């Protein structure tokens, strides 16, 4: 350690590439405004992550509305297992060249939206228990199944969104652009946490479900734009090749 401290100089990187924070965010704003695909992808990630972070704070009161004694550790481990299974499924989906990530992610968002509707559905169809304490109720078990489904969708989401980031967002500005979208995301999460007791839990889950459904619509729009862009690029390349061919007389 002494030799390292005395002989190694600090690596500060290339000073020509260093930019101040304001310049980086200006560049990110220009990239977002000039490319609809980047704007759509950022909005999709913000909507999903906002719902996911809100879910983290809501699943415990949703499963124990009457102070039921629920096995928090076991449930959390089940969530992690579901997320791992989702990631494993995503790796298989991404390995299939015939299947577009933009296509199956629409289904993932719809399933996520439906799974977070279960607390509302169970509250309407299943009469809530009036007894304090006890073990998890039947409605709680149904919700737990939906929450595990949502966690599986979370597991599919992360590798899939990374794949789309690499396709649509330039590498040199990728981190800045994604941080740009995390500003409203973090503001939203803070507002939700501050007002978590101001609204019924069903309203909060309904809001998350709407966000996820909107994400599926935006994902559909992203797929349409991406396909259109690829078609235009292919047509342009074909025209250039035809112009480059010599005339046969």
Number of helical segments?
9
CATH homologous superfamily caption: MFS general substrate transporter like domains
Outline type: globular
Q: Total domains, how many?
A: 1
The CATH topology annotation reads as Growth Hormone, Chain: A
Based on the coordinates given, report the CATH architecture. Up-down Bundle
Structural class: mainly alpha
Tell me the distance between the termini.
77 Å
Low-confidence stretches: none
- Helicity range: over 70%
* Helix-strand string: HHHHHHHHH
How is the biggest beta sheet arranged?
A: none
Q: What top-tier CATH class fits best?
A: Mainly Alpha
- Radius of gyration, CA atoms, in whole angstroms: 24 Å
Strand fraction: under 5%
Compute the average pLDDT.
Answer: 87
Number of strands: 0
Transmembrane segments: 38-62, 74-95, 107-125, 137-158, 179-195, 201-218
Function: Mediates high-affinity intracellular uptake of the rare oligo-element molybdenum.
Keywords: Cell membrane, Ion transport, Membrane, Transmembrane, Transmembrane helix, Transport
Protein name: Molybdate-anion transporter
Description of the molecule:
With 249 residues, the protein is mainly α. It has a single domain, classed as Growth Hormone, Chain: A (Up-down Bundle). The mean pLDDT is 87. Helix 3 runs antiparallel to helix 7, helix 3 runs parallel beside helix 8 and helix 5 runs antiparallel to helix 7.
Summary of the model, kept short:
This protein is an all-alpha fold. It has helices spanning about 1-5, 20-35, 35-65, 70-95, 100-115, 120-125, 140-170, 175-195, 200-245.
């Amino acid at each position: 350690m002494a030799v390292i401290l005395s002989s190694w100089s600090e690596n500060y990187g290339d000073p020509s590439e260093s930019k101040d924070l304001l310049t980086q965010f200006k560049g990110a704003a220009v990239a977002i405004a000039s490319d609809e695909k980047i704007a759509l992808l950022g909005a999709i990630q913000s909507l999903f992550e906002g719902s996911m972070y809100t879910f983290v704070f809501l699943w415990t009161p949703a499963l124990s509305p009457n102070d039921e004694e629920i096995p928090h550790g076991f449930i959390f481990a089940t969530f992690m297992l579901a997320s791992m299974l989702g990631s494993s499924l995503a790796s298989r989906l991404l390995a299939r060249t015939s299947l577009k990530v933009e296509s199956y992610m629409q289904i993932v968002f719809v399933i996520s939206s439906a799974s977070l509707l279960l607390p509302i559905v169970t509250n309407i169809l299943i009469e809530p228990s009036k007894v304090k304490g006890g073990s998890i109720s039947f409605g709680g078990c149904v919700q737990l199944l939906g929450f595990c489904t949502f966690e599986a969708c979370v597991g599919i989401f992360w590798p899939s969104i990374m794949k789309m980031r690499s396709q649509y967002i330039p590498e040199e500005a990728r981190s800045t652009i994604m941080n740009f979208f995390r500003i409203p995301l973090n503001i939203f999460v803070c507002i939700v946490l501050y007002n978590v007791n101001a609204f019924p839990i069903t309203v909060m889950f309904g809001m998350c479900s709407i966000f996820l459904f909107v994400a599926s619509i935006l994902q559909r729009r992203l797929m349409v734009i991406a396909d259109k862009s690829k078609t235009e690029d292919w047509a342009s390349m074909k025209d250039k090749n035809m112009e480059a061919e010599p005339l046969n007389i």
